[in-house]
Design a protein that fits this description.
This protein is an all-alpha fold. It has helices at about 10-20, 25-45, 65-85. It has a domain at about 20-50 and about 60-90. It is built from three helices and no strands.
Length: about 90
């Protein structure tokens, strides 16, 4: 049984939900949903597995650690790919 909650969504949030719903049911949709969920988890709680000098894992979205840098590079690659698909080859 599915349960539904009512929350106000911004136009950007509504566009994201609508776009995800428009993807046809397939293995690709399953992978896209899993990837989006993983990406949002990283954005919501970016935790570096490395302990800092005080022994506590880093929980700052502004830290410049290897994990944060790697996620940023992946996002930049996706953005460049999107621009190329839209006809901007130099991006």
């Amino acid at each position: 049984m599915e349960t539904y909650a009512t929350h106000s969504l911004s136009p950007d949030e509504w566009r994201l939900v609508t776009t995800l719903r428009e993807v046809p049911v397939s293995a690709l949709k399953t992978r896209v949903n899993a990837l989006v969920e993983a990406l949002l988890e990283l954005a919501r709680e970016p935790r570096c597995p490395e302990h800092q000098a005080d022994g506590v894992p880093c929980q700052s979205v502004h830290a410049n650690c290897d994990q944060c840098a790697q996620v940023t590079r992946m996002l930049e690659s996706l953005e460049a790919m999107q621009l190329q698909m839209r006809g901007f080859p130099g991006a």
